[in-house]
Amino acid sequence: MPAVLGFEGSANKIGVGVVRDGKVLANPRRTYVTPPGTGFLPGDTARHHRAVILDLLQEALTEAGLTSEDIDCIAYTKGPGMGAPLVSVAVVARTVAQLWNKPLLGVNHCIGHIEMGRLITGATNPTVLYVSGGNTQVIAYSEHRYRIFGETIDIAVGNCLDRFARVLKISNDPSPGYNIEQMAKRGKKLVELPYTVKGMDVSFSGILSFIEETVFAMLVEITERAMAHCGSQEALIVGGVGCNVRLQEMMETMCQERGARLYATDERFCIDNGAMIAQAGWEMFQAGHRTPLSESGITQR
Amino acid sequence: MQASGGGAGGAEGRDDQQSSRTPACQSGSGSAEGEDVHRAPEGRGVSGRGRAVMEAAVARPRGERAPDGLGSAGDVAPLAVRPRRGEVVLTLRVPFQSALEADMARRSLLPDAQRHQGLIRKEFAVNGSDLLVRWTAEDLAFIRLSLNPFLDQLSLVIRNIRSLGIPPRQSLS
């Protein structure tokens, strides 16, 4: 019954998780939140992670009721992500692996999301819509590999929403996307040209509804196309933007029309977390993978 | 702290606990002979704090003996390449409690050291219980950009080792 410790910190969330045989034993996480109108920079984000990671490690072990003796493998995010934050987490994973004399496993962040999504929902072979601040891809498993069927040709959809929130100085607490979603729910009018002026006042919620409807419809279209290509009867949404209920509704409509089933997870697992790295690490550990220290450097892309 | 051929590295080495290796840097308080030079190193229980020593030098033209920051420490395996004309070299020496700890820190920090190899060269070695790091670049500015993040990561590794502790069986070897 191997137990795997997972470290994640590729963007502004830092998490440490413990997984044993398909059970999440601990998954504490902290988020680096910047003031409205600003985004998070690599150096500041890394500083935030360095300040809390050792406490998070203790918290995870305590919550799981385990000691170093009970851990069989140390997993960490090898990439992709922001350089300085990735390095800050990787050095701790390497040090812990050496101190406890345990094997090390470098995990792909995207695969962490997918493996956790599969574990939590029980989906067997879904077409995956992976949407977050850093990634937007439609992925399917075909012939022993995860393959990208479609993706953004420039920025991730979460990045689009985050930048939009920045322009409007919407709060980043708990995340800009969450606040956009709440405000968009109050929008009553979907207008083609989102120019909403009432006398001396302006209204912005219509613009946000417009943004969501448009970008989410784009994502639904490419997911549907991939499902048609693969003959897939399951869809799984992973990544922070997957928390958005409107996106889930639109995807559900498309799936129902196709007689397919939609899977999604809640904010504990949609948003970056340590347990998803531990879970992907557990799969790799069982398959016999190991990452030698000399090859454990992080990869931003 | 020794400075040769140019500006001295600016940071933590300049504290009161001068080791006997650096008689050139006695404090200027006019104290009694030998009082500051041979003070015992502070708290053996502390690893990597305060006594990090930096040496910065401008490479001399070929033909003269170039400052050999890492080689002068004693029986260190000589590192890669000598600095070329016009290159700047900065050496950092970080004392740990044991060779095991120093090597552990080296192996945690080394894999990501190659990320900016085009602009600067970073080399690691362990001598006794000291971790040695040497930066070589054409411009001190590049070294400065690399040094600060590196010190942050080093500090994290040191805190990590301290908070978890070396297991008994490992520290015996």
UniProtKB/TrEMBL annotation, chain A:
Residues annotated to bind substrate: Y130, V131, S132, G133, G134, D162, G177, E181, N244
GO cellular component, one term: EKC/KEOPS complex
Binding positions (a divalent metal cation): H109, H113, Y130, D272
Pfam families attached to this UniProt entry: TsaD (PF00814)
GO biological process, one term: tRNA threonylcarbamoyladenosine modification
Catalytic reaction(s) noted: L-threonylcarbamoyladenylate + adenosine(37) in tRNA = N(6)-L-threonylcarbamoyladenosine(37) in tRNA + AMP + H(+)
EC number, as in UniProt: 2.3.1.234
Entry's cofactor comment: Binds 1 divalent metal cation per subunit.
Presence of the UniProt keyword tRNA processing in the record: yes
Keywords: Acyltransferase, Cytoplasm, Metal-binding, Nucleus, Transferase, tRNA processing
Cofactor(s) needed for function: a divalent metal cation
Protein localization: Cytoplasm; Nucleus
Record-annotated Gcp-like domain positions: 29-278
CDD domains (UniProt xref): ASKHA_NBD_OSGEP_like_euk
Enzyme class: transferase
GO MF term set: metal ion binding; tRNA N(6)-L-threonylcarbamoyladenine synthase activity
Entry's family note: Belongs to the KAE1 / TsaD family.
HAMAP family cross-referenced by the UniProt entry: Kae1
Protein name: N(6)-L-threonylcarbamoyladenine synthase
UniProtKB/TrEMBL annotation, chain B:
Record-annotated membrane-spanning stretches: none
Region Disordered, residue ranges: 1-51
Keywords: Cytoplasm, Nucleus, tRNA processing
GO cellular component: cytoplasm; EKC/KEOPS complex; nucleus
GO BP field: tRNA processing; tRNA threonylcarbamoyladenosine metabolic process
Subunit description: Component of the EKC/KEOPS complex composed of at least GON7, TP53RK, TPRKB, OSGEP and LAGE3; the whole complex dimerizes.
UniProt cross-references to PANTHER family, sorted A to Z: CTAG2 LIKE 2 (PTHR31283:SF16), EKC/KEOPS COMPLEX SUBUNIT PCC1 FAMILY MEMBER (PTHR31283)
Principal location class: cytoplasm
UniProt feature, compositional bias: Polar residues: 19-30
Name of the protein: L antigen family member 3
Composition bias type Gly residues, residue spans: 1-11
Origin organism lineage: Eukaryota, Metazoa, Chordata, Craniata, Vertebrata
